Amino acid sequence: GAQDSCAHQCGELLGTCSCQVTCQSLGICCPDYKEFCLQISPYSGSLMGGKDFLIENTALNASSVLTCRFKHKIKTSGYVAKDGKAHCISPLLYETGFIPFEVSTDDGLTFPYSGTWLSVHHSKVSDGEKCTLVNETKWQYYGTPNTGGNLTLTWTHQALAATHINIEVWGYQETGDSYSENWVAEWKYLYTLAREIPNTGKFSFIPVPAKGSYSTWDFGILRISPSSYSDGQSNIPSVWSSEHALAWHLGKDFRNDPKAWATAKCIEWDRKEEKLPNFMEEIIDCPCTLAQARADTGRFHTDYGCDIEKGSVCTYHPGAVHCVRAIQASPQYAAGQQCCYDSTGTQILTHDSTGGSTPDRGHDWGSPPFMKPPRIPGFSHWLYDVISFYYCCLWSDNCHFYMKKRPSSDCRTYRPPRAASAFGDPHFLTFDGLNFTFKGQGEYTLVESDLTSLRVQGRTQQVHFPNGTGAQVTGLSAVAMQENNSDVIEVRYSEDFNLEVLLNQKVVNFSEQSWMDLKGLFLHSTADQNITVMFSSGSGVEIRGSGGFLTLTVLLPEKFMNHTQGLFGVMNGNTEDEYTFKNKTTMSVHASPQQLFEFGANWAVENGTSLFTYDTEFLLNNFFYGEKHNASFLPVFFPYEDPADPLVKEVVSLCDSDPFCRFDALTTRSLQVGRSTRLSHQNHKLLVENLEPVISCGWLDHPTNGTKNGTNYLLGSTISFICNQGYELTGSKERICQVTGAWSGDTPSCVP
């Protein structure tokens, strides 16, 4: 019979063959799979668009008229180069994440070719892709006292295939009524700064105030594009600058008296804020300590503007050593939280110091479904929280206005998440702190929750160690997860022991981007392959490879209490019911390893609910068609410690009193495995320690006509009060934060 074709069918399983991404490793692709299902390079670029990408696997004839169409509606022009390779230009988008695109070779009649483009937050794009505002501060302070002279712009001239280029100024605005359906975001071409200049990679000029109404645009960006295109033409090859405060082009009124101009703008912003809803009520409270903030990886992520691992360069937060941002935007207003900490690990509040953290009306990363204010990645945030900081704090001395509208949150209502881990020859540490070893071979439910349909599944496989016997050693080899109808993420060891991450069955490549905004989750990979999945519920999953096994940690916020089941137990603060079966019966916590083996087997995944990708013959035969729990595999329950065995002595000195380390080193006959098990175990203990709840009594003010001593508001802290000369103190001279979360004593006041 005739073979099916992948034209218009990428991602589908057809009658005679497959157009799904797994078809290649299974050898069942339709013959024209590679022609129609596109691989591209580069695979990502700024949401501002204008980036040229190559379509790697399709040879088209040079006379084809190429049209590229993103999201079924945004068209950009493509072209076929002299070498017969096809190219597309990425479009300006108001969202981040994977964007489907299609290609037409018949001038837009049909679009049989398809692929995906990764749209990235503008400040997450590598510096080389942007043009550089040399001494950016000078651009953004131009016209203020002691800032003038030449401005210089540089760029990689090879990025544009043109001998002459234009440099344009674009402005960003959001029009319509705040938080209503007609609120709209727009990047708008304003004017051309320089025309038909040689594409040398450098341009210097003395800025003059922009003409007419253009000088009222104070937030924008520069675009460099070939002179052959018309002014402001959309979606053409371009190199954009970073977005910035346009001080350098502001009008005469700004240049004559920047302070007065900025003060008026600051007061106007303050009045506008008065009329907007209070987003502070719905953002998550900050973690109480730096240790909590760095451990709660499902809900908080490093703020790159103040990072302890990059030397704590905290320009906007003097006195801070580290800040974090809440990963998820708040539900209704899409607002963001920021939390900063000093060298003692204590939170810094704006009430006490200008270095304090300031929450954001617009979350810096934007938030799904993007497209409309206040959810535009980066730019909504600039408009409400950054340009206003220039008005009030940087271009004038009115920072008190800003801090009053953006006060730090303390940590009184913060509740740390709970952690469960699995590692080694699999050892399980449950949310409630019970630990056990389950050496089944198969695919099992580690945790599932009826609260958000969260499911985390683990696969264990027999592992053979080069120098060990290791006949009956199993370990985690793959973990797959999903929440509600989010994307499905799987992390696994490939057959050559490389860590692979799959997104909806397709291997993800982190070579260009280490952070991805996906459906219902964010995905992050560190340089040393630590994978973090952050679901929209605030639950987090961390996975890393260690010595042939995966190490897994799941973090669940308090709202999951009484809403979990699986191998990680019932999270409710009580260990007695940890061993709960699918049918809700429980087994004693003193069960034997053999009984535990039955408990584990009960949580085997069923085919219909498996989240794993079966893209090799081996996986199909062993896990898809075979049993989900291999009942014929009988593990070693107790490794034998032979006093005459030379390994035992080494194991004792390596492992000390760590039972998991001893178990794994003896069953695998490998000290290396023991060492990585010990490390995973220590990491888990440290994490649990860092996530201990901390009591906070909340911020205390100083009395009018007096001062206070102390800025730590956690359990056991003392704040003392002194009155100014000529006043005496009534009420408590010092107050202590008590176990109840209340301050001792009474509010002091200073009376003449």
UniProtKB/TrEMBL annotation:
This is Sushi domain-containing protein 2. It comes from Nipponia nippon. It is found in: Membrane. Its main location: membrane. Keywords: Disulfide bond, Membrane, Sushi, Transmembrane, Transmembrane helix. Pfam families: AMOP, C8-3_MUC4, Somatomedin_B, Sushi, VWD. The keyword Transmembrane applies. The keyword Transmembrane helix applies. CDD domains: CCP. Disulfide bonds join C723-C750. GO terms for cellular component: membrane. Transmembrane segments: none annotated. Residues 695-752 form the Sushi domain. Residues 258-406 form the AMOP domain. Residues 418-611 form the VWFD domain. Residues 2-41 form the SMB domain.
